[in-house]
Amino acid sequence: MGEVLARYADDKGPTLASAETLAYSIQALAPFWGGLTCDAVKGSTCRLYERERAKPRKTETTSRTGKTIIRTRAAGASTVRRDLGVLQAALNHAHAEGMLIHPIKVTLPAAGDPRDRWLTRSEAAQLLRHAEPHVQRFILISLYTGRRESAVLQLTRPRVDLEEGKIRFRADGQAETKKRRGKMRIPKQLRGHLRRWLRHPGTHVIMFRGKPVNSIKTGIRRAAERAGLEGVTPHVLKHTAITWAVMDGVSVEDAAEYFDTSPETIRKHYWHHSPHHQERALEVIERRR
Question: 2, 101, 162, 177: which has the fewest C-beta neighbours closer than 10 Å?
Fold first, then answer.
């Protein structure tokens, strides 16, 4: 399995938009799976991996002041599903490349119900007020564009066209994935911020100490703690952007086009927030005599 994971990382890693996420998952998978043979992949070992990942582990990080911070964390079901999804992809690749004679099926843990956490406008204002400048940029871009963390952090200056009023979140030559990035028009509220930010030098729109930012999770978490908010992650900002648009009356088709998200996803996860939700059915029912 170690060879399978290494081959997948070498062959696919350079072509993926989420190469860092892939590397993180492989680092988590390797200690458990690396020494096993591929025929050991079955339901029982997948469930054992889930239990192992659920055990609290201490991690050490160093703050900007040089202080060592120790945190205890355990992987949740969604993280395990992501890890095992990478394991399945690696096995599929190994089979396609002739390393395996037969395909091998990975058993995934059950998917939990999606969290419906989104920020009110007052919560968003509080988060902004307590965030560092580069985190504020991320928050504003996320709330106006509804793009994923990686798409926002990897946004380079040449892909922001203030004259045409458009942003290209996907780089030239970058393969599109199911987690689409696409192109969008810039709202006038965000255009003013971008114009001010782009006056400063740098390769990316979001920079910290002169360098691009690889992850904003810690910055968001700290801002949320200072603001007294719970359950705030970068994905919550994307969820908030689409929820606000739907609450303001944007249709399924327009939301899907603007946020480069499928209509099915809009209907499944956001449409219940719309003032038009079940509107036509309600009109018909209320016309009954």
Answer: 101
CA atoms of 163 and 79, how far apart (whole Å):
41
Instruction: Please indicate, yes or no, whether residues 128 and 246 belong to a single structural domain of this protein.
Output: yes
Question: Tens-digit pLDDT profile for the chain (289 aa)?
Answer: 999 999 999 998 877 656 777 888 899 999 999 999 999 999 999 999 999 988 877 666 555 566 665 666 677 777 888 899 999 999 999 999 999 999 999 998 877 655 688 999 999 999 999 999 999 999 999 999 999 998 999 999 999 999 999 999 977 655 544 545 578 999 999 999 999 999 988 999 999 999 999 999 999 999 999 999 999 999 999 999 999 999 999 999 999 999 999 999 999 999 999 999 998 888 889 888 6
**Do residues 160 and 198 touch, judged by C-beta distance below 8 A?**
yes
**Residue 288 belongs to a domain:** no
- Is there a contact between 254 and 146 (Cβ–Cβ < 8 Å)? no
- List CB contacts of 92: < 8 A, sequence separation 6 or more: 103
* pTM of the predicted protein model: 0.69
Q: Is 73 helix (H, G, I), strand (E, B) or coil?
A: strand
Are residues 56 and 194 both part of a single domain?
no
CA distance 96 to 102: 10
Residue 280 falls inside a structural domain: no
Which residues form the domain of 174?
121-273
Residue with tokens 């911020």: 193
In the chain, the number of structural domains is: 2
